[in-house]
Specification:
With 276 residues, the protein is an alpha+beta fold. It is built from 5 helices and 9 strands. Strand 6 and strand 7 form a beta hairpin. The two termini are 32 Å apart. The structure holds zinc ion (ZN).
């Protein structure tokens, strides 16, 4: 089955089961069902951030603490069935990896169809973080002092405020899943900034309901995506994204790449690629 065909099925499955899935996660935050389609058989553990994403990172383990239990961040998973994890999302990632390695962003750009797929992929990450956030919030309600913490810079995960009401958390979770079932991402294209990067290492930060930044050093590409905010032009989004990247790099003490490279990369080591 082609990837596009699989994605049609994926959207249908989400639409048909989203109520069941969300109700089940809200009812029991550690429920063992596929967080995408609700299937309870053939479950696998879907990595919140796929391991290939930080392939070239010099630090392979990122510490996160859950209820005082330390685990490495690259083992943070949510349950997903084999179809959703391996067949559909796995295929989407394989497709994107192929595109990332084939493109030279200095003189070409992704097709609209691939931009739709990049956005969908970034949306799946957001949804998985929402699932984790819900667990965190429920843990907090239950009196634990769970604070998600990723200590090994340059990786940093910036979560939303801790005092969100449960109903707000639930509706955000619901919307994050629903978003995955929407085919057209046209109205979202300006909210995705694609950057050519020359940094040697992987960087990542994420703010739930807000934005995500992923720098894939092995492909010389970085993505900044605003989950909610809309922009009249791609330029506006890019300006704002650059400001946030600059602030985050500064706060994590990230080494900045020498600006004197052939493509005029700014101090950040990332350069906005303009759409033709
Ligand atoms: Zn599934």
């Amino acid at each position: 089955m082609s990837l596009n065909r699989k994605l049609i099925e994926f959207r249908k499955m989400i639409r048909a089961n989203q109520k069941k899935v969300i109700d089940s996660i809200i009812d029991d935050h550690s429920t063992n069902i596929c967080v995408f389609c609700g299937e309870s058989n053939n479950l696998t553990r879907e990595h919140v951030i796929p391991q290939w994403v930080y392939d070239r990172c010099t630090r392979r383990t990122f510490i996160t603490t859950t209820n005082n239990n330390t685990q490495t961040y690259n083992r943070t998973t949510v349950p997903a069935c084999q179809d959703c994890n391996n067949s559909i999302l796995g295929e989407l990632e394989r497709h994107l990896k192929h595109k990332f390695s084939a493109i030279d962003l200095r003189n070409e750009y992704f097709s609209d169809d691939d931009i739709d797929k990049i956005i969908l992929w970034l949306e799946t990450l957001e949804y998985k973080f929402h699932v984790l956030d819900l667990r965190r919030n429920l843990n907090k309600v239950q009196g634990s002092d769970y604070i998600p913490y990723i200590g090994q810079m340059p990786i940093a995960m910036f979560q939303g405020p801790m005092d969100q009401s449960p109903s707000k958390v639930f509706s955000n979770l619901r919307n994050a899943l629903k978003t995955l079932s929407i085919k057209s991402k046209d109205s979202r294209h300006n909210s995705l900034c694609i950057l050519h990067t020359t940094n040697p290492d992987f960087h990542f930060f994420h703010s739930t309901n807000n934005y995500i930044f992923i720098e894939l050093a092995q492909y010389n590409v970085a993505f900044f995506y605003f989950y909610k905010q809309e922009f009249a032009t791609a330029k506006e989004a890019s300006t704002q994204a650059q400001e946030i990247v600059k602030t985050e790099y500064a706060s994590t003490g990230t080494e900045q790449v020498n600006p004197g490279d052939a493509y005029g990369a700014p101090d950040l080591g990332v350069k906005q690629v303009h759409q033709n």
